[in-house]
Design a protein that fits this description.
The protein is of the alpha+beta class. It is built from three helices and six strands; from the N terminus they run ββαββββαα. The structure holds zinc ion. Zinc ion binds near residues 48 and 53.
């Protein structure tokens, strides 16, 4: 048994052939889905047999396994911005609190 179920026929049009697509999702989230940093909560499947595209995985359906790692990306970007723009604030009480929160 494949580990997916069809949950709709109203997916985004196939980017290659423009046909409507099925919406599919995992029946269960197994270790296979959890192996990478993220898996897809849903994806689209092109049912046009003549089309070479079959699976379409829009980034908006990504589910980050560890929501912290997604947060971390944003946080590192924020830190970079802060270092670049607000160097003079290092040592201020706010900066100290920020550093402590992020220590692991
Ligand atoms: Zn297609």
């Amino acid at each position: 048994m494949p580990n997916f179920e069809i949950v709709g026929n109203d997916g985004d049009p196939c980017p290659r052939c423009g046909q409507p697509t099925q919406v599919r999702q995992h029946k269960t989230i197994r270790s296979r889905e959890l192996r990478g940093p993220f898996y897809y909560s849903k994806w689209f499947y092109c049912v046009n047999r003549d089309c070479q595209t079959n699976t379409i995985v829009p980034p908006r359906f990504r589910v980050w396994r560890d929501s912290k790692s997604a947060d971390e990306v944003h946080r590192l970007e924020a830190i970079k911005r802060q270092l670049g723009e607000d160097d003079h604030q290092i040592g201020s009480p706010d900066w100290g609190a920020f550093k402590r929160r992020n220590r692991r």
